[in-house]
Amino acid sequence: MPTSVVYLIAGLALLLAAVLPPILTRFAVSAPMVLLVLGMAIGLAPLPDGLNLDPVDTRPVIQRVTEITVLVALMGVGLALDRPFSFRDRRSWRAWNATWRLLAIAMPITIAVIAVLGWWLGLSAAAALLLGAVLAPTDPVLAGDVQVSGPQVLDDEEDDIESVEEIDEEDEVRFSLTSEAGLNDGLAFPFVYAGIFLAVEGPPSEWIAGWVAWELVGKIVLGVAVGMLVGWGLAKVAFRAPKRALRLAEQGEPLLVLAALVTTYGLSEVVGGYGFLAVFACGMTLRAAERGHEYHATMHQVIENFERLLVLAILLLLGTAMTNGLLAPLDWRGVVVAFALVFVVRPLAGLVSLGGWRRGSTLPTDMTRAEALATAFFGVRGVGSLYYLAYGAGLYAFPEERWLWATVALAIALSVFLHGALATPVMRQLEARRDRSAA
């Protein structure tokens, strides 16, 4: 890609990142929607010579850029969650009940249904499983309108589970969607590998035992452990180091969060764990230290600004590619998969996991039925799906790769427009219901 084009895209993204959020706050229009439309308009115009937007040719670039974007988003999500979690405290396990249900029930159902649908529509079993794994995780990048806004600062005497829950217990929808997105981006990896193994090593009987032991369990444990260890160590230094020069929290040095992100991801990948899970765990561990300190908000602000720039640049390019040949391989099968995912599979899988199909005022997750419906519906797809497809296609040359790119792009665009348009009115309606119930 010509250097001048890179500067132009970066400049547009920076300008729009600064201008759009305050303008769109009162409307049912999100910045991702605007950027995607703008990109589509640009794609219809003559493009500079040498600008290659073919996802197969530029797969390594797509993988690295989306990888960085997801990592930044995961660190931001980890820092934003105010509800603590402790492995040894049953109350915190119960407080995260909706998250566990979405991960353990909704995500596997989504993978299985999309994989079976893809196979039934004519994909190879391996490509169908990869498609299910790619489209299953919700996205921590594009779901800002339905996620928690950022860390709240508490007084030290309020730093316990009950007081922290009071911050977000009335908005179980935002907490559930945020925590789900933070965890399932890492949990998609085992199923991506399953698709690769199915293509390379043959029937599951040849590899299933090793896959369960290492890809499904071992790498998850390693990733979480590394993230917690790095987060704990950096928090000790930043907040409680014996020498004042090392207590970065007192100095308000925000670059610690970027150092934590890169160190955690690098160390986790070196030892063989899932780096995405490690970064999320590191963010949560940092947040657990000195909850009343304003340094958390400082770190989150840096991450949020960096994330916004990356997201807008990616969406601008995605929109440009969509009207410049990316969707050319799309056929009716891809349309069926994309619409089924957004309108049927995710909503039903979410309802099953949350008990939203039951009638009653309160569900097993302490949500109302309306809240469960909203949580099930807002399974936003985005940058994470682009990363996983680039990653999986880089490990094995799937004959259906161009069709996979077109289908995933359509699903992301559909999610951006549908969820982006409905997020503001739906969340306002839920808040109004809670206010009436509390009155």
From TrEMBL:
<keyword id="KW-1133">Transmembrane helix</keyword>
<feature type="transmembrane region" description="Helical">
    <location>
        <begin position="212"/>
        <end position="235"/>
    </location>
</feature>
<dbReference type="InterPro" id="IPR006153">
    <property type="entry name" value="Cation/H_exchanger_TM"/>
</dbReference>
<keyword id="KW-0406">Ion transport</keyword>
<keyword id="KW-0813">Transport</keyword>
<feature type="domain" description="Cation/H+ exchanger transmembrane">
    <location>
        <begin position="15"/>
        <end position="428"/>
    </location>
</feature>
<keyword id="KW-1003">Cell membrane</keyword>
<keyword id="KW-0472">Membrane</keyword>
<keyword id="KW-0050">Antiport</keyword>
<feature type="transmembrane region" description="Helical">
    <location>
        <begin position="336"/>
        <end position="357"/>
    </location>
</feature>
<feature type="transmembrane region" description="Helical">
    <location>
        <begin position="378"/>
        <end position="398"/>
    </location>
</feature>
<feature type="transmembrane region" description="Helical">
    <location>
        <begin position="255"/>
        <end position="288"/>
    </location>
</feature>
<feature type="transmembrane region" description="Helical">
    <location>
        <begin position="102"/>
        <end position="135"/>
    </location>
</feature>
<feature type="transmembrane region" description="Helical">
    <location>
        <begin position="61"/>
        <end position="81"/>
    </location>
</feature>
<feature type="transmembrane region" description="Helical">
    <location>
        <begin position="309"/>
        <end position="330"/>
    </location>
</feature>
<feature type="transmembrane region" description="Helical">
    <location>
        <begin position="181"/>
        <end position="200"/>
    </location>
</feature>
<dbReference type="InterPro" id="IPR038770">
    <property type="entry name" value="Na+/solute_symporter_sf"/>
</dbReference>
<protein>
    <submittedName>
        <fullName>Cation:proton antiporter</fullName>
    </submittedName>
</protein>
<keyword id="KW-0812">Transmembrane</keyword>
<feature type="transmembrane region" description="Helical">
    <location>
        <begin position="404"/>
        <end position="427"/>
    </location>
</feature>
<feature type="transmembrane region" description="Helical">
    <location>
        <begin position="31"/>
        <end position="49"/>
    </location>
</feature>
<feature type="transmembrane region" description="Helical">
    <location>
        <begin position="6"/>
        <end position="24"/>
    </location>
</feature>
<dbReference type="Pfam" id="PF00999">
    <property type="entry name" value="Na_H_Exchanger"/>
</dbReference>
